[in-house]
Amino acid sequence: MTGKRILPKEGRHAHRQDMRVFRGVEAWVFDLDNTLYPHEASLFPQINEQIARYVQKVLDLGRDEAMAHQKALYHEYGTTLRGLMTTHKIDPDDYLAFVHDIDYSSLAPDPDLGHAIEALPGKKFIFTNGDRPHAERTAAALGISEHFEDIFDIVSADLIPKPNKETYDMFLDRTGIAPARAAMFEDLAKNLKVPHHLGMRTALIVPKGSREVLQDNLDLEGDPYPHVDFVTEDLTGFLRAVKGSLT
After folding, report:
1. Taking residues 176-188, what's their average pLDDT?
2. Rounded distance between C-alpha atoms, residue 225 and residue 206, angstroms
3. First vs last Cα of the chain: how many Å apart?
4. Pair 91, 115: CB distance under 8 Å
5. Helix H or strand E segment including 64
6. Which segments of 176-234 does DSSP mark as H helices, in order?
7. Strand 13-15's sheet: what is its strand order?
8. What is the mean pLDDT of the chain?
9. Which of 15, 56, 68, 103 is the most exposed place for a label (fewest CB within 10 A)?
10. What is the pTM of this model?
């Protein structure tokens, strides 16, 4: 026995647990960017470009310097916003309005995703490090707004981003969710550590074509992602499979 966790290569999902673990879930929590819409929509690169432009403008830096500074702030503080607030006392409202001033035309209504979300029992929430207006515009472009109970954004979190535990605590306090009866969907594995520790089921959404690469990492002894229960590159198909496991 090697101790490896071998994941089945069936379909476009990697399961490390029986999907029946979703039975009893009554709260479904979704990250926004690169989760509710596919990575290929390229919305987030626009946001990254706007962040770099903001850093360049506010700090009077050249483009290369601004991009390097942006990355450094992100890695040290979790978000560029938090880094700029800490080191340069910028106005968060001004920042959020600027970086989310993007073109949403790459998003199209996704009725299949909407139906898959609607079919899940219980309440659904968007939990994002972006702001509410961005989340509202994104959900509206996808045609899925009506399926969510509420949006918990970076402002609701007192500008403290995931994966800080206090952010999840604020989210749970506001929504009244019981973690043991909740599931969370994210595109960043680090943002699933706290939910897993709290008792949520966790699913990592990855770009199309990358699941096999990630699965190879998960198969290695000394699993680097013990907090990820499921991996999928097809959120709609995965949610349908979840709904099927509940019957």
Report:
1. 97
2. 14
3. 34
4. no
5. helix 63-77
6. 193-198, 211-219
7. 13-15, 230-232, 201-205, 182-186, 27-30, 123-127, 150-152
8. 88
9. 103
10. 0.88
